[in-house]
Amino acid sequence: QAKYAGRNTIRFFNPDMQAAIDARATLETALRRAMNSDELSLYFQPQVDRDGRVIGAEALLRWLPSDAEPISPTRFIPLAEETGLIIPIGLWVLEQACAQLGAWQADASTRELVLSINVSACQFHQPDFVVQVQETIAEFGIDATHLKLELTESLVLDRIDQVIARMHMLKDLGVSFSLDDFGTGYSSLSYLKRLPIDQVKIDQSFVRDLAHDQNDAAIVRAVLAMSRSLGLNVIAEGVETAEQFDFLLSHGCEQFQGYLFGKPAPIDDFPAKVIGVG
Ligand code: C2E
Ligand code: MG
Ligand code: MG
Ligand code: MG
Predict the structure, then answer these.
(1) Intra-chain end-to-end CA distance of the chain, in Å
(2) What whole-number distance in Å separates Cα of residue 264 and Cα of residue 258?
(3) Which residues does ligand 1 sit against, CB inside 6 Å?
(4) How far is CA 206 from CA 120, 220, 263, in A?
């Protein structure tokens, strides 16, 4: 045991590591429990066009434990991915999203809204993922052309031929694709051309310092120019200031998402915004 290990002994295991493993196990148990209670919920963040009109939303998962502070998806999504819990969670997100689209499509004032959901790599690669999407679309009777799947660069670059084949099957159902966190990975122009994506989502790390960082500004201009030449729609995420919005507008960006237009919020707070702005 570590306790008896003398100097110069290589320890493969130390109390810090044990503590980390314990914390992870506790979190995993809590996440399993959260799935069976109502601690998980979907929040909706508006996406707007150049006139600031709400045209859709991104669904973002929230874990709000009844007896503790909210736990960030940047913490529990990776854990869910490692443990496989993302499979049932991802299916739940898909169902909730399709239910919401069904509600929107039943009302003339919200019929045109597009809803984006995030899809993890292991979820996308499940053998029955396409069937699940197909069945959920059918179950809720939605027009799937208003359902968008956000895939990350790393997802699409790994096993690219299989990914492209699967994307085509999903596109046949009417679903569209946004390439999330664009710019943080290694996608090249030639890869982008091969992928049946509809939209590129500029990562918020480039948007943040747009007004002060010449390199970020150059990257954003390049992404906008390149996407235009490829006929791809571009959305910028993490837009917080009017200054960032103006820069993006002046360089041709078509869609926007960020605190400037609205934070992720429960669905009850969402329709009011649509009616308010639209
Ligand atoms: P993402 O898909 O890139 O989502 C955008 C993140 O930026 C969200 O963080 C959102 O709340 C945040 N954000 C939006 N506007 C602003 C802004 O103006 N300023 C700043 N500072 N942040 C902004 P969130 O909700 O914490 O989610 C983090 C990540 O967790 C997501 O990044 C996504 O990768 C993952 N995630 C969230 N929900 C799901 C889900 O249902 N399934 C899967 N697989 N992943 C999810
Ligand atoms: Mg996203
Ligand atoms: Mg993103
Ligand atoms: Mg991001």
Answers:
(1) 65
(2) 9
(3) 45, 60-61, 72-74, 77, 90, 93, 118-120, 150, 180-181, 204, 237-240, 257-259, 264
(4) 22, 7, 19
- What residues are neighbours of ligand 2 (ion), with CB under 5 Å? 118, 150, 180
* DSSP H or E segment with residue 189: helix 189-194
Q: What is the pLDDT of residues 141-171, one digit of tens each?
A: 999 999 999 999 888 888 889 999 999 999 9
Question: Comparing 87 with 271, which gets the higher pLDDT?
Answer: 87
Report the C-alpha gap between 78 and 75 in whole angstroms. 6
Alpha-carbon distances, residue 174 vs 50, 145, 271 (angstroms): 25, 5, 24
Closest CA to 239 of 228, 250, 248, 226: 248
**Whole-number Cα distances in Å, 190 to 77, 193, 226, 232:** 30, 5, 11, 14
Ligand 1, atom 27: closest residue by C-alpha = 73
Q: For residue 75, which phi and psi values (nearest 5 degrees)? A: -95, -45
Position 106, amino acid: A
- The predicted complex's ipTM stands at 0.98
d(CA 277, CA 51): 10
Q: Which amino acid is at 59?
A: A
DSSP one-letter string for 210-276? TTT-HHHHHHHHHHHHHHHHHT-EEEE----SHHHHHHHHHTT--EE-STTT---B-GGGHHHHHHH
- Write down the pLDDT at residue 121: 95
pTM of the model: 0.92
Q: What DSSP designation does 38 have? A: T
With vertex at residue 68, the alpha carbon angle to CA 62 and CA 74, rounded to the nearest 5 degrees, is 40
For residue 22, how many other CB atoms are within 10 A of its CB? 10
Q: Helix (H) and strand (E) counts for the chain?
A: 12, 8
